[in-house]
């Protein structure tokens, strides 16, 4: 699973660079033709990772339900996020990756509730969830790359 975590680390480093190279106004801007913005996509990656990895494993997520509800699939930005929220998301990009690596190494993922994604792919265990999460974060990184051209 080392390569799975290396891929996620690379994705998260790209997302951190996006945060660091855009103003709060740019992070919050929803360009014409898009339904969300840079910061929503970045936070959505954190939210989805927590649901796919922890919630479906029957474990306590490392972020609040409020955070999950704000950035889960099917949501969209309801207003601008503050600099404090951006700072929290920045921290979560690193801490949630480090925590899942530690928890995986410690073998805490013993159970998994099967889940069929909107792509039609069925997650059956933690390995599949971690692999699919990278695919998901890759999709949103591509969306982010498109959005940043218009902000």
Keywords:
151 residues; mainly alpha; two-stranded antiparallel ribbon
Could you characterize the architecture of this molecule?
With 151 residues, this protein is mainly α. It has helices at 2-20, 24-28, 38-53, 65-71, 83-105, 126-147, and strands at 115-116, 122-123. Strand 1 (115-116) and strand 2 (122-123) form a beta hairpin. The chain is globular. The chain starts with a helix and ends with a helix.
List unreliable stretches of 5+ residues: none
Q: What is the succession of H and E elements?
A: HHHHHEEH
What would the principal axes of the Cα set say about the shape? globular
Q: State the oligomer.
A: single chain
- Overall pLDDT metric: 97
**Rg on CA atoms, Å:** 15 Å
Number of strand segments: 2
The neighbouring-strand order within the major sheet is 1-2
Q: Count up the helices.
A: 6
Largest sheet entry: 2 strands, antiparallel
Structural category: mainly alpha
- State the share of residues found in helices, binned by percent: 55-70%
Beta-strand proportion: under 5%
N-to-C terminal Cα separation, in Å?
36 Å
């Amino acid at each position: 699973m080392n390569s799975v975590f290396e891929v996620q680390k690379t994705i998260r480093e790209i997302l951190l660079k996006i945060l660091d190279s855009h103003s709060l106004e740019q992070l919050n801007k929803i360009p014409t033709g898009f339904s969300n913005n840079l910061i929503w996509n970045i936070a959505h990656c954190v939210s989805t990772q927590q649901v796919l990895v922890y919630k479906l494993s029957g474990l306590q997520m490392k972020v609040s339900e409020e955070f999950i509800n704000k950035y889960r699939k099917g949501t969209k930005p309801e207003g601008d996020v503050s600099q404090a929220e951006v700072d929290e998301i920045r921290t979560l990009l690193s801490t949630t990756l480090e925590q899942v690596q530690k928890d995986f190494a410690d073998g805490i993922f013993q159970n998994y509730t099967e889940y069929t994604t909107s792509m039609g792919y069925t997650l059956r265990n933690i390995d599949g969830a971690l692999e699919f999460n990278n695919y998901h974060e890759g999709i949103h990184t591509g969306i982010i790359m498109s959005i940043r051209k218009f902000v």
